[in-house]
Amino acid sequence: MYFLNEEERRHLLKRLLPKSRELEVAEELRGWNWHTAPLEPPYGCRLALYEVASSYCPTNRDLFLRRVARVRVKPNVAMVRGSALHAALVHVLVAAKRLIYQYGVERYTEICRELQALDPPSLSGAVRDLAPEEQADVAQKMALLTEFEKARIVARIQEVLVKHPYIGEDSLANLALPLVLEQKLDGSLLGLSQNLSADAMIAFEPMIMDLKFGEPRDFHYLTTTGYALVMEAVYEYPVNLGCLVYVEFRDRRIIVRRDLHIIGDELRQWFIETRDEKARLVEEEIDPGVAEDCHPTCPYFRVCH
Ligand code: SF4
Predict the structure, then answer these.
(1) Which domains does the chain have, with CATH numbers?
(2) What separation in Å is there between the alpha carbon of 150 and the centre of ligand 1?
């Protein structure tokens, strides 16, 4: 999912990277300036990154209900499915890294054999709470995703081994799987939660990757932008690139579309304004009212209607 194809790699290397390195992001919009305006959080409350970046509710009443009215609801099917598919992907990538360190380069055939035999993770409690047909659908998609990713990883391991005859296992793991998964980040400098978790970080050129299993939406860019700002605040180096990975299941096929983008001033400004607006809603306990066009799958639908 996270590995770019040849075309995307060339687009990244020849266009986006040079452009991002020339990019002049306004200094006050770099995460390391978290202590001055406009990045300095104007309110004391700490929001989860998804609370800033998710705008599925047109009026943000979901945030009011969760954080102010303290209404607890069950996640909807799409949320449960998304988190099960994320878990399946982490499972296979982490297993691959573990196998590389366990067997080393000399026994690489065993790495490939065990990886190919790997099953998807077992279903979480949230998935087991779904209706039987929905459970079966999630299980089938997890299996498809696992098979898809295993084949890609085996090919990448072999590709690296062919190119580097004297490689050791640490370098093999790093070249074949140059990703940090579920990178934990403390967002408190920017008025965000202390326990943020970015889906994936590319190790060589700082790039935030976020995996989506639904339709593309504009506000998805706020997720990569938010993590980029937090990375800059915590590590004090520039993070200029993001990639939204959209995965679609069509019958028994997987379609992947990656949206590589530069995290420039406009996105940074949008993130800060959204953060401040939502933090004000929580701090001042403002009920923004029920939206006009609520989707019935919204977890709060029965609370609002
Ligand atoms: S039901 Fe409508 S107003 Fe209520 S949280 Fe959901 S989308 Fe927002």
Answers:
(1) 6-304 (3.90.320)
(2) 39
